[in-house]
Structures are given as structure tokens and as C-alpha cells.
């Protein structure tokens, strides 16, 4: 096999021979020099007056080898192409590619049935039934690096939580519609800014029947099944009402710990071994009116994580990015940073860095908080959301530039990056990863057909990408497997294979906030699962070496 | 003003100072060397074990000037940024940008009302009512370089043609539905592959009423108002039925000449002064059973063009690209090429080159005709359709590579180019223009929201782009102004201004098949219109220097 450098040199030589600029023999007379001079004078040097390059035609044989080299060179630029698969991996690759190409080729015949061309809500169950999803699910995918803590537990688990004692629900008159939830010994006081009235959830279940309430909640706690909102603002509005409903449920201190523990369990079951989540760090509450602070929230996380790791030796770990709401002013951001410093000092192993969250388009752009952000010590890292928009040239779009200039370690979303080739160049140079959340982008109305997702470009040109799931709970997705299915079948090239998948898993560790030594340990927990996965693909059975490898 | 090279150098220096890789002081200990070695061994050198770059934070002042430079550098890469506007142009630019930003800013508040975020059919009339469209319409846009000859005349004119004597229509029983049209002295023979029956169009008008027939035809001759087809195959199917209906009408020799003459008139009225169209070169017919050949079709074009140019001194001209159907085999392609040689020899000033047309996805890819295409003499140029697809990695997608390797002068569509960064690089190096047809791409179901059109990337990175209209008649669009409106407001950055518009007009001449001397003459017809346009924008009135500048 030609090594990459030789390939490129060889290719460059051939290309120069064949495609070198030379005017064609007949059609294009050399232009009059005074005409050229005048054109340049009127329309600038960019009005290049040289005739468009004319090429000499190669022989069919020369063409065929040139073409072959072009394809190999193009492929060598794609994400994952630098990985060398071993023999077992090559075998597994054949099986996975056959599975992928079957779906792809069916899609060529009936494009409207191709799952990644449709809205996720229409196909999420069908996806689960595919062989390809079975592989995506069984594959150890490494880490989730972009997820919001109150949107990572399954709907089923959320509903289970609503069966706990002392839960009250605030409803509008005469219907099931729930506005907020809260745990309380007694009926909560009527809020001044809402007409809803409080009842015990248990009473509501008695009145409407448990099934009806559960069914209502199952819909109310996700964006499902609405595929078309007026626009992304409308989608976000609906999206935010879910957060405000779950908040009262989750911010209850005993639930907070359990919810996190359960989410880690669900992620591990989906073969995700490390979770780096964003949190607004809510102040928790309980029935005893205990006065909690943000520090307690972090403490509960750390304690719960310890418990979880003790019980799951194959789990790598979890860290948090403090990511409070961006729709605020500079003085509040300064307060955020004080909190950030406090928690980083207390829990340096758990706090990975800082971000700001909330719909970029309606919040404040990074540029408004530059002086506050520059005051953050250099030892604390940024992981900014940026470019989750399709408004090219807006202040939101420009967050991409500020994120890079502020030294962000990763870009959250970066949907608008194709509109900023120089930012892209910088990302490669500075090795800043792009956290791509395919399903989130579709549900929140940035893209309709996944085949047009800008991540195709990132894959093609080998940008450092990690695939993540953002808020899987709110779109009824599995913790990460659905996003991998979409990325692999719908966004990547038909030719992208196991090397891309492996690269995405490796990237998720590589671009995590873990130190290199920690990454080494992390990979030593990932590698046996990967080996077992390869055997599973080849033989269809699970090897004992990977105890928690759960097959869908 | 800093010149571009100085700006870049200055910028690079600052960037290196601020963003140079250096490990942060506290958080990231240098990794253990043996760990690094082992990671590289297991996961390849690409698993770069250096910690992700940590940057030192600049002062707010340094940040502000760095940011400013970043923006200026980014802007300097965008298409049109190299043009220097004169004083009058700067004045006009302010007015045009105010008009653009009003629509853009309204869009930020109510995205679902932003016209480029919607389907063109829903907004085409509203667009016409905007001030911005008025400017797009009045602007001398140079040339249309991508249009198909039987889809460039307005529906109104097509209907007018159906009033001519001896026109027969083949209808299914009991309805208006028309399957084909043909001019004939007597009732045409029943076709064996259809059940429709022939009636004189004049009789049908008497039977159903002229208005009813005209209304039916107005709908039947466009894809309007269907905004959502099952998929792009379904859209293409419907699209092809329009071609098959108009063919019988247009291939009638006397109509052929008149249709072309009228189309040139409509394009000129829309301030398009040059038209480089693709044609399948149909063999024409008349009532006298004259035996026509492809050469006659070209001859009629050339004669008609001469007549048109004699009557319109401000018109630059028109050339044809011979572009027969791709859904065929190699031996037919060889026949195509014989025809190509014949017509090129007879009409070297009118025949610009060669292409293949028809839905790429259902036709044959270029790679199947390599040996035939390589046999074409180097003096004849290619202008290939390529990448009009969202199937990444399919054989259609790969047409982009063959088009470049075959030495195409321009790429027709290139919708899939963002998935081929190396092809993009080659286009820049070889100065091959991309013919972007925004509305066509949406109507034929490749993109829904124009803000996601890949041409944003081409604009941002300064690729040689021309904006064209493909088949404006079939989507009830003006010859070019609607596509310019969409490109300028919906695809380009909010910051893109008159320089982009001027560049697009210049590019359309620059990347035409005209020789440099001809381009010089072309620009001497374009420049006075441009000057008049600038005055019109500033003063709101038309200058006499540009006789045919028609304001919408």
C-alpha cells in the first residue's frame, strides 16, 4: 500500500502534467495586451484575463489511473482515513458496509423512504428495527461530549419519577395540561404569573387514570411528534417549556442524584462510557427547606458519580461543563465566573470548564461578554456553543469567531461553520473539535434532510468531529446510537466505513477534557469493548471480555 | 486602507502571537512519554497526544483589534471583496444595503416570514413587490450561463403560441388534461403508446372556453404550485412531463425561431445581455414535411440571433452548448460527438461546447462515457452538469470528479461540491466556475431553506460562482432577477453588498465562452447600463444612457 505522503506527491505530479494551464490550440487566441491592461484597470486584477485553463486530453489509460489516484487522494483527506484496520476489523467492516449499503442502495431507488431523508420522529422506531442500528447500538462509542444534564434521562424514567410522593402539579382549569411540577409537603402557593392550580400528582392520577396521565406526560416531555414548527424560534419555545416542566421534578435534591445515576446507567447501556455534560447548576431544594447552593449541586454530582463508578468498573467517568444561561448581562456573567472559580477549586477533577447556553439567536452573543470572559484564569477551559444558526452574518453566526478567539477547546454545534472557511481552518490548526448533534439540528429546524447536514463537509475534509446527542430525551432518541446511525448512513459518504466509526469513538476520548494519562486509562476500558464488538459483528455472539456490552 | 496582502501578514503575526500552541499553566500536566508512545502505537500518529492547544488570554484591547482583523480577513476571502467601489457605487451600496437589511432584520424577528426560508412558490409574488427585487431587476446582471432552451420563455408567451393555427392537442377522455401538442394540417395519427385523442386546440377552446384552457395550461406548463414532492425523483418526473408537452409546440420550425427571439427579448428586459444556453438540438418539423436536421436547428438559431442583435444594439449575444440526453449508451454518445463536430465546424462562433443533460441520478454517469469524451478535440470545450444530487458517495456525486478531470470549463450546479473539498480546491486552481441555480435546486427538492444552500460556502471562500436560472419558465420566475434576489438575501452573508452583486455580473461575462476580446466588447455594453443602474439607485430615475434598462 502506498503511504499517504507518496500518494500525494505522485498525485500532484500527475495532476500537474495533465491539468497544467495551457491555452488550447484552436479556440482561444491570445488576448490583445492592451485589452488586458484596460480590463484590469476597470475591473481589478481579479478580472483575470488569461483564458480559462484548457487541458490536453489524456489517454483513456492515463485518465483511468489519474481518476483512481484522485479518488484515493480525496479519500485520504476524509475523517478516519488515517486509521489502519486489523484483520478482524476488516472482516467486521465488510459486514457493516454490506448492511449500510443495503439501506443506501434502497434509498437510491426510493429516496422518500430513505430514513435519513425524513424527519427523525417519523423513523425513530423503524431505525431501531434495522441491522445497522443494531451495530451502532452495540458499538462502544466512547463518550458523549455535548449533552444537557436535564435532557439525558429517558421519558420512561421521568414518568417513573412522577410517581414519587409529595409531587404536585400545576394545571390549567379543566384539563390535564401541566405547567409545572414541584415536591412539597403542602399545597404550594398560587403563583402570581400563572392561572394554574396545584394538585397532588397522585390525585390527578386517580382522577384521570394512571395511563392517561402517563400518556400525556410521555408526549408533554418530548417534542415528539411535531415535525414542522413555524420556524426554529417556535421549536425552541416548545423546547423550553419541556425544560421548565422537568425542572421542578429534577431540582428536588433526592431526585437530582437518582436522575443522574440513572442517566449514566442508560448511557452505559447504550455503550457510552464517558459523559461530559453541560449544566446550568440549578440550586436544589427539598422538603425540609434546606438551603442549597450551586456547590451542593456539584457535590451531589460528585458523590453520585463515585457511587456509580464503584458499581460499574467498565465506566470511564463523567465531568461537567458549567453552562449557565446566556440571556443575561455582564454583571451576572461575572457572578457566573465567581461560581465557576469556586467549584473549580473545590472539584478540579469534576469541573471541565465553562460555556453559556440557551437559544443563541435570542440570547446575547459572546461579544457582549468579552471582558468578563477574558478575566477567566487560563487554567479554566471554554467549551462554547457557537453557530447553532442558519442566519449567515448575524451576531449569532459571529459567535464562531469569538469562540475561536477566546480559545474554546471545542465548538458546540458549529452548524454555521461552512460559512466561515477561515474559522474552519483555525479549528484544524488549533485542533478544536466540532461537537455535531445531528438529530438536535433537525428537530430544532435547522436542517430537514440529513443528507444536507454541513457535517458532510467536516467528514470529507477531515475536521476533528465528535458526534453527540444534545438532548436525546426530548426527541425520544437513545443516548447516542440514533445520532451515530444518522451520521454514518445519512451524513457520511457511502464509502465511509468502520474507520470513520472508530475515529469518532477515539475522537470522543481524544477531545474530551481528560488529561492524556486519563485518556490512556479511558482507552484501556474502551479497547476490550471494541474488540468484543468486532467479534460480535463477525460471529454474531458476545464475548465475555466485555461484561456490559449490551446488544439492542 | 490597508491593502489585502499587508492585512493578511499583519493578521498572521497577531494570530500567531495570541494563538500559538502552549500548554496552559495549571490544568494540563505534560503527558508521560511512554503513555504517548503507546497511544501512538495503538491508535496511530493521528491520535495526537499533545494536549489541545491552550491559549493565553489577550487584553480586551488586544482582543478587540484581533477580532477586528479576523473579521476583515474573513471578509477579504469572500466573493467580491476584491472589488473597489467608486463613490457613486458606494452611495448606491448604502441604499441597497439598507433595503436588504430591512428584510433581513425582519426575518430575524419572524423567521417563518423571511422569504428565502420558504418555498419559492409561496413567495414569488411577494418577492416581486419588494424594493430589493426592484433593484435586482433593474441591475444589469450580465449573462445567464446555465439555462435550457425550451424552458426560458414565459408561460404567457407559451400560451400565446397555443393560439396559432393548426395546433392539435392530445387529450385523455373527458377532461382538459393535455398529453402532447403538435402542429399538423390534418388530425395526427393515434399513438400506439397512449390512449389520448387528438383535437384542434381551437376546438378545445370553443368547447371549454378560452379562459379555462389558458388557466389549465398556465398550471400544466409549470411545477407551480406543488411545493412538496415525495422526493426529487417525483419532482423530476413531473418536470419531464412539462418538457414533453412543450416539445411538440416548440419543435415546430416557425415557432422555434419566434420562441428564441421572444426569450432573448424577455431576458434583455430583465437586464440580462448575454445568454449561453444548453440545447438537446431537437430535429424540427413543419407542415410541409420538410426534412430538418440538427444543423438546421442551429442555423435557425444563428439566423434568429442575427435578427435579434440587429434590432437590439445593447444586446451582447448568445451561444449554445450542445447538451443531449445522458440516459443513453456509448455509441449514441459517439453519434452526439459527430454532430458536435459538424455544428462546431459550421458555426464556430455560435457553438460553445458540449454537455450531457437529464436527471443525473437516473441517467448514466460521466465515467461510462470517458473514452468517447476523451476523443473530443481539445479545441471543443466541456460544460458539464455535475453534482446535482444529495447522495454523497454515489456515482452521480462522483460526476464532479470526472467533470474536473475531463477539463470542464464550468460545473453545472455543483450542489454536492461541499462534500468534495479537493474538487473545490481544483476549481479555484483551474479557475472553473460553478453555475449555481438556487431556485431550481429548491423546486427540484435538493434544499428546502435557502439559508442552507451550499453556495453560502462558495461565496464565503471566494469560489468562482455565477448565478443562473436553469428553467425559469417552469417555476414562474423572471429570467434571472428572482435567483439574484434569493442569492443576495438568502444565501450570501448579511454583510455581502454591491461588490458581490457586481462580481456576479462580471463573473457571468468572465466565465462565459467568449474570448477575452469579445468579453471586452461585452463589458463595453454592460458598463453604461451599470452606471445607469447606479444612478437609478441613487436618484430613483433612469438615465438616458441606457436605452433598454427596464425598471420593474
Automatic annotation (TrEMBL), chains A, B:
EC numbers on record: 3.5.4.4
Source organism of this protein record: Drosophila lebanonensis
Gene3D superfamilies assigned to the protein according to its UniProt record, in alphabetical order: Metal-dependent hydrolases (3.20.20.140)
Annotated ranges, domain Adenosine deaminase: 223-523
Encoding gene per record: LOC115632342
Protein name: Adenosine deaminase
Signal peptide, first to last residue: 1-26
Subcellular location: Secreted
Domain Adenosine/AMP deaminase N-terminal: start-end pairs: 49-135
A GO BP annotation: inosine biosynthetic process
Amino acid at each position: 500500500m502506498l503511504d499517504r505522503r507518496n500518494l500525494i506527491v505522485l498525485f500532484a505530479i500527475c495532476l500537474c502534467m495533465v491539468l497544467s494551464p495551457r491555452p488550447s490550440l484552436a479556440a482561444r487566441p491570445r488576448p490583445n495586451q492592451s485589452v488586458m491592461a484596460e480590463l484590469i484597470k476597470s475591473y481589478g486584477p481579479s478580472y483575470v484575463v488569461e483564458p480559462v485553463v484548457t487541458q490536453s486530453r489524456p489517454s483513456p489509460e492515463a485518465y483511468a489511473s489519474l481518476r483512481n489516484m484522485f479518488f484515493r487522494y480525496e479519500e485520504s483527506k476524509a475523517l478516519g482515513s488515517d486509521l489502519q484496520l486489523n484483520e478482524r476489523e476488516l472482516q467486521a467492516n465488510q459486514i457493516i458496509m454490506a448492511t449500510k449499503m443495503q439501506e443506501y442502495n434502497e434509498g437510491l431507488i426510493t429516496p422518500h423512504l430513505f430514513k435519513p431523508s425524513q424527519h427523525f420522529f417519523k423513523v425513530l422506531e423503524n431505525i431501531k428495527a434495522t441491522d445497522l442500528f443494531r451495530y451502532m447500538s452495540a458499538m462502544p462509542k466512547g463518550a458523549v461530549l455535548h449533552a444537557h444534564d436535564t435532557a439525558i434521562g429517558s421519558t420512561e424514567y421521568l414518568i417513573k419519577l412522577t410517581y414519587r410522593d409529595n409531587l404536585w402539579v400545576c394545571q390549567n382549569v379543566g384539563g390535564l395540561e401541566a405547567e409545572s411540577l414541584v415536591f412539597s409537603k403542602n399545597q404550594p402557593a398560587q403563583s402570581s404569573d400563572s392561572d394554574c392550580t396545584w394538585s397532588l400528582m397522585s390525585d390527578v392520577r386517580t382522577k384521570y387514570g394512571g395511563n392517561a396521565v402517563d400518556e400525556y406526560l410521555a408526549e408533554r416531555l418530548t417534542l415528539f411528534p411535531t415535525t414542522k414548527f413555524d420556524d426554529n424560534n417556535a421549536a425552541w419555545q416548545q423546547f423550553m417549556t419541556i425544560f421548565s416542566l422537568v425542572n421542578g421534578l429534577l431540582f428536588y435534591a433526592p431526585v437530582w442524584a437518582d436522575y443522574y445515576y440513572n442517566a449514566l446507567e442508560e448511557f452505559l447501556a447504550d455503550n457510552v462510557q464517558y459523559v461530559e455534560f453541560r449544566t446550568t447548576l440549578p440550586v436544589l431544594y427539598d422538603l425540609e427547606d434546606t438551603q442549597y447552593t450551586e456547590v451542593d449541586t456539584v457535590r451531589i454530582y460528585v458523590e453520585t458519580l463515585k457511587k456509580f463508578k464503584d458499581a460499574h468498573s467498565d465506566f470511564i467517568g463523567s465531568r461537567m461543563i458549567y453552562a449557565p444561561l446566556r440571556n443575561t448581562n455582564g454583571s451576572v456573567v461575572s457572578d457566573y465566573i465567581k461560581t465557576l472559580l469556586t467549584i473549580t477549586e473545590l472539584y478540579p477533577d469534576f469541573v471541565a470548564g465553562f460555556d453559556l447556553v440557551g437559544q443563541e439567536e435570542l440570547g446575547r452573543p459572546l461579544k457582549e461578554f468579552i471582558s468578563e470572559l477574558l478575566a477567566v484564569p487560563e487554567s479554566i477551559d471554554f467549551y462554547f456553543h457557537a453557530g447553532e444558526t442558519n442566519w449567515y452574518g448575524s451576531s449569532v453566526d459571529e459567535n464562531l469567531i469569538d469562540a475561536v478567539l477566546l480559545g474554546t477547546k471545542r465548538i458546540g454545534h458549529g452548524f454555521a461553520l461552512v460559512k466561515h472557511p477561515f474559522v474552519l481552518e483555525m479549528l484544524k490548526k488549533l485542533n478544536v473539535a466540532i461537537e455535531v448533534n445531528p438529530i438536535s439540528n433537525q428537530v430544532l429546524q435547522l436542517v430537514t434532510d440529513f443528507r444536507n447536514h454541513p457535517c458532510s463537509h467536516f467528514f470529507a475534509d477531515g475536521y476533528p468531529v465528535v458526534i453527540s446527542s444534545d438532548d436525546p430525551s426530548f426527541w425520544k432518541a437513545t443516548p447516542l446510537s440514533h445520532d451515530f446511525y444518522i451520521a454514518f448512513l445519512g451524513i457520511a459518504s457511502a464509502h465511509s466505513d468502520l474507520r470513520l466509526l472508530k475515529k469518532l469513538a477515539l475522537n470522543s476520548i481524544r477531545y474530551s477534557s481528560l488529561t492524556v494519562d486519563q485518556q490512556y486509562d479511558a482507552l484501556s476500558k474502551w479497547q476490550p469493548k471494541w474488540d468484543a464488538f468486532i467479534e460480535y459483528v463477525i460471529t454474531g455472539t458476545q464475548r465475555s471480555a466485555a461484561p456490559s456490552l449490551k446488544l439492542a
